[in-house]
Amino acid sequence: xxxxxxxxxxxxxxxxxxxGSLTSVELVEDCINNLRPELSAYREWTPEKAIIQxxxxxxxxxxxxxxxxxxxxxxxxxxxxxVDGTQTFAGSPAPMPSPWQSEGDLIKALRQQHSVFTGKTHxxxxxxxxxxxxxxxxxxxxxxxxxxxxxxxxxxxxxxxSLCEGSALVALGSDTAGSVRIPASVTGNVGLxxxxxxxxxxxxxxxxxxxxxxxxxxxxxxDAVVAFSAIDPHQRSFGPRLTRQVAQCQPSDFVIGIGERSxxxxxxxxxxxxxxxxxxxxxxxxxITPAIELLKIGSVAAAEIDEMLETTAPDSRDTLDPLVxxxxxxxxxxxxxxxxxxxxKLRSLSRAANARFETCQVIVSPTVAITPPKVSDVxxxxxxxxxxxxxxxxxxxANYLNLCAITxxxxxxxxxxxxxxxxxxxxNHDESLLAxxxxxxxxxxxxxxxxxx
Length: 453
Fold this sequence. Notes:
alpha/beta; 18 helices
């Protein structure tokens, strides 16, 4: 067997699968051996199914049937997605009703590519939280703190952990206010929030139809480019445009906007980018402030999940975690006129924010404003609320302002926990965002090499 192919890049794995020097079964077996049960990344771990899927991928390649670059690649799936042969709990104590047990378009497309699903990763109950806590199933442990059970970020709480341990090479998540980028940032991974409406959300239990997006976590931006190209409907239809765009992107080709300078004191990454020829200018997003105010009162998400549960899963309201139910109760009690006012406010903020990219291609910020807390320190509503806001405040803007965004790992904080740099771009500029992020990665180094240096 090859020596730890689970540590290879997706590009190297793709070449090896196709030249016969590696099989998907070998790759998946390596990933299975990487599982660390004590980290609890998965609600449902399905190694036997994964081996069967890997064998099918190998059989297809042996017959010269190449279905895409995620063929034979182990992928973990957030427990909001319907996946045949598993159940969807959405972080609650009971399975969701039948509409949410069926595979949607994204999972179907991956299955057609002969991707391999390693299991269902943990999520915050109904994806409503940024810390990553789940009192029903337990909270995954952030692998970066060996001595304390520290939060893995939410709501895709098991996704980043699955990448860190190496049981999966791509992780599917969802992002309504930061639920892909937060767990990616605090576990030292890359997390992509796609533009609203860019990827299908069918077959994914909804938190907020107004704000929900599907996205991916990967170990590097290079891997994110490969995965995005294989998943994105536009890329699949019109060919490898992203690959060319990434290859051609140079530091002098784009401008980054930097907001409040005091946030960046001592940030080596910004200095390195500038020294490499990346131009940085002052470019703020004043719409972030009212976006955070909307976050504090539940935006429209609390009202929408309240109605969704009442309509489709009323019994689940009786078993809600108090950390979740208190926020849903507050937001769900608003009037129809207040709900419509918040929707109108979001549209207005989005128009204003998307007009602020005339002089720069991306606006950057720290991804998460605080060190992920110890789980023991966020067990009450009073202790949880400020930490949850601290985790979400920098990421919610991309959702509320209708932007696409990515986080890339750039270092460690004083507690030794990973720190991410968030890049935000205009709606439907996902390709440019990835090209710029990959150019930055070439300058700064990939996550593993940078964080372990």
